[in-house]
Amino acid sequence: MVGAFVVPLLARFTPRIVPAVAICVSWVVLTVGMLVAPEWAAVWLSFGAIGHAGGFVVIFSTLVAIARSDAEAAGMSALVQGGGYGAAALAAPAMGALHEATGGWEAVLLASLVVVLIYCMLLLAAVIVSWRAPR
After folding, report:
1. Other CB atoms within 10 Å distance of the CB of residue 116
2. Predicted local distance difference test score (pLDDT) of residue 11
3. pTM higher than the cut 0.85
């Protein structure tokens, strides 16, 4: 829940990109941390929790910033949530299958890192586009 409270504060007092970068850093710290020092899982999971909760704030505040109407915001929200939950529903079985196929967690964590990096690129691109959106 820390991310859900800290990100709005960051958004209020810093440029819009700062909270997005903080979220990206937290996700990268989680995945890289689990790869290099899994015995510190509680620390890395704390970073991931911040990224997870704060990510929702960044995503939906960015969505609202670029929407031209309430109806458009509702449609974009439905698309983002539906797509996100659909991808999440498929990710767990896919990662489980990867774990079974490789017999370890390294491939799963590397695949997670790839997903995190794609997420970060898309999140940062959306925030940059929102800066350019007419108000």
Report:
1. 21
2. 85
3. yes
